[in-house]
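Case 180 in the screening queue. Each case pairs one protein sequence with one candidate compound; here the compound is magnesium ion. For every case the pipeline is the same: read the inputs, emit a complex structure as tokens, and attach any notable structural observations.

Predict complex for case 180.
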Amino acid sequence: MYLKSLTLKGFKSFAARTHMVFDPGLSVVVGPNGSGKSNVSDAILWVLGEQSAKQLRGQAMEDVIFSGSSARGPAGLAEVTLVLDNSDGTLPVDFEEVGVTRRMYRSGESEYLINGAPARLMDVQDILHDSGLGKETHSIISQGKLDAVLQAKPEQRRELIEEAAGISKHRRRKERAARK
Ligand code: ATP
Ligand code: MG
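Case 180 output:
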């Protein structure tokens, strides 16, 4: 599984529809300070269901909607679509490509789509669960998190490595089984 494309419209500094295509392997986003690099990773977090404005470096969730510039009025909604290549069947669905869309209006109303069909946040989370892409899987490491890793105690660092290596979910299952 890999990130195939990301489309932003009205999300943070991306007022106009912006479509980014990624190849398998390593991709690097470069640009001057303030050009929107972190907004790209915020968009990935957001479309995957992030509920905390603070994690998205904002005060309120509405801060993800393009607020306007001298050249352009504010957007009425933010929309992000992320497409994952699932030809290796990592995700438990019968689709070669899985597109997840999140929209949010100024009214605060939010909606999710999976391959264009209306879905619940729970459906999105269910599909991503165990793929290493869901919440709390360290698939996105913010600048502040990096400091936390460097300053962590050895035991905490071990937990992070186990989580990243996908070992901790097996340990959680083992612990759950042992309790029964
Ligand atoms: P750095 O190299 O400093 O980390 P960066 O490329 O990561 O910079 P970002 O933090 O992604 O930059 O982008 C910051 C820019 O996004 C700021 O200019 C900010 O005004 C703009 N921005 C954030 N939210 C919105 C919004 N809702 N509407 C319009 N612009 C926004
Ligand atoms: Mg940044």
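Case 180 observations:
- The CA atoms of residues 132 and 165 lie 9 Å apart.
- The chain has two domains: 2-134, 141-180.
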